[in-house]
Amino acid sequence: MRYINHVICFVMALFLAIPATASQEKSGKLNTSQIVVGHIKDSYDWHITDIGTRHIVINLPVIVKSTTGWHVFSTAKFEEEPDAQGYRKGPFNLAIATTGPQAGKIVELRGGDIVMPLDISITKTVMVLFIDSIILLLCILLPARWYRKHKASDAAPGGFTGFMEMLISWVEDNVVKAGVGEGYEKYSPYLLTCFFFIFTCNLMGLIPFPPGGGNLTGNIACTFFLALCTFIVTQFSGTKYYWKDIFWPEVPLALKAFPLIPLIEFVGIFTKPFALMIRLFANMMAGHAIALSLTCIIFVVASMGVGIAVGMSSLSILMSIFMMCLELLVCFIQSMVFTMLSATFIGLARSKGE
């Protein structure tokens, strides 16, 4: 427990120190909105901190197809500061727009025209996806290796393998089996993958420095793909009773002739995964934004006098610690809620009628 406390204190110190030097306006004041938005949004490089005027970043590969062909190079090739038009210029007439509708995207400057190239670059979100996927694979393959070397009659595993067995059994029995019902076994791999992938991404997003610090589940593209997978699995699992209840429900004939109920049920096919997408995205994005905003209070009030600075800083630290602890709980709850709702939707689609 003593070492766990030391680790928590170290992480909190980094969490408080990194935003302190992360973004400043030209006037020297802390740009809190840029800190919060910069942490949440995607980018072509991975900003760590600033030391004086020097930006400490991890340069990621740019992969684009412009009018002159495919180009692969590092983001270090782009200029650090934008020009008068708001473009960080790079090679091959490519630039990163900092203003306008293309802000944050790579554009191709062709004279006075702006062309949007085919962009498949490894951005911060994509890199975080790779890292979290590798961590998830290790968390699954390491316990699997233990089971390959032991028999069912051997003593129960301990340590990390025992923890994973306990967590998988709990999710299997209380979420997957309870939601899907009979025949849940063939859906367990997908639903368990959803739970552990979201849980891993949520936890890694709380770490304020690489390889963590990415807001993957707070990215609408990621939650959209997860919800789309649940939508596809649900529709392909639908029985004839499921589709009958949608297009020919057990309601008075007048309501069938005027297809209000079937229309509502049909729209519900799409609103259910949409709710999954928005619920996960909004909760994780809001949690990160609140935690960072509370931390920034320390540096906003730093110049307002010793008494105010000490009082507000102490309150901000306590609130930041509280939010971080709450975020740990939210990481688990959001993983469980997404998996539970997905299992419930699949279970309803597999209805066998009365």
Automatic annotation (TrEMBL):
It is found in: Cell membrane; Membrane. Pfam families: ATP-synt_A. SUPFAM superfamilies: F1F0 ATP synthase subunit A (SSF81336). Its main location: membrane. CDD domains: ATP-synt_Fo_a_6. It comes from the Bacteria. The chain crosses the membrane at residues 126-147, 154-170, 190-209, 216-237, 257-278, 290-311, 317-348. It is a multi-pass membrane protein. GO terms for cellular component: plasma membrane; proton-transporting ATP synthase complex. Gene3D superfamilies: ATP synthase, F0 complex, subunit A. Residues 1-22 form the signal peptide. One of its GO terms (molecular function) is proton-transporting ATP synthase activity, rotational mechanism. The keyword Manganese does not apply. Keywords: ATP synthesis, Cell membrane, CF(0), Hydrogen ion transport, Ion transport, Membrane, Signal, Transmembrane, Transmembrane helix, Transport. Belongs to the ATPase A chain family. Key component of the proton channel; it plays a direct role in the translocation of protons across the membrane. This is ATP synthase subunit a. The lineage of its organism: Bacteria, Pseudomonadati, Bacteroidota, Bacteroidia, Bacteroidales.
